[in-house]
Amino acid sequence: MAHKVQRNEPCPCGSGKKYKKCCMLKARERVVAGVNRKEGVQHALAWISKRFRQQIDNWVDAVWLSDISEQQRHGIASADPKIRSIHDINLLELLVAEGRFEDKDADETEDRSPLQLILDSDEIDLDDEQRKYLMQLPERQMHLYKITHCLPGERFSLRDLLDAEAPQIDIEDTYASRMFEVGDKVGFRLLNTPAGWETSGAIYYIPDAYANELEEQLRVADEDAYSTILTRRWLELVAAHV
What we know:
Elements: H1 23-51, H2 53-64, H3 70-77, H4 81-98, H5 114-120, H6 128-135, E1 143-151, E2 155-160, E3 169-172, E4 185-188, E5 190-193, E6 196-199, E7 204-206, H7 208-219, H8 226-239
C-alpha cells in the first residue's frame, strides 16, 4: 500500500518544505479555484434560467426537443429525479454554449446568444477567471470519451473514443469521480484551466449496449455535429428510462 504523506512530513516534491506548506497547500488552492469556476457557471445558468424563461421554453421546444416525439417527451418528464437534474444541467449548458434566442424586435446586429447576454449583464458578479471559463463553452466541442481510470472521490482519467492516438487526460474531480467506473462511455465538454482540464458540468452517460452505434454515427459526422448527435441519442435513452 502506498504511503500517505502526513501534513508535517517533508513534501515528496523535494522542495524541502513540509507537505502542508507545499503541495498540500497547492492542492487546496486548486480545489478552491475549481469550485469558484463552477460557481460562476452555476450563477450564470441560474440567472439565464430565471431572466429568460419564455425564451428558454421556446428554444427547448425548437432545438433541445426537436424531433423528439410527444411520447418521448413524456418519458423524459417522468424520468428519475436524479436524471432530471442532470437533464436540466445539460440543457442549460448546451443553451449557453451553442444556443441563440430569436427576437423579431431585436436589431439584426445584436448578439442574442445566451452567453453574450450573461457576459453583458450587470446583475451577475463574475470575476475574470469565471468569465474566461464560460467563454470557452462555445469553443470546446463535446466528445465521447471512455473512462480509463477512476479513483472515487479524487480523480478519473479518460480517452477520446474516436481518436486512437489521443492521449489519456487526467482530471481531478472529487464529485464526478464518484459517478464513474472504468470502461464507462460518457459525453463531455472539456475546458482548459490553469490547473489542467476540467469537465464543464454536463454529463452524457451512454450505456455500453448503445455506445457502439453512437460511436459509428460520430465517426462519419463533422465535429460540429457531435453535440447534436450526442444530445439526441442521450435524450432518447432518458425518454426510454434506460
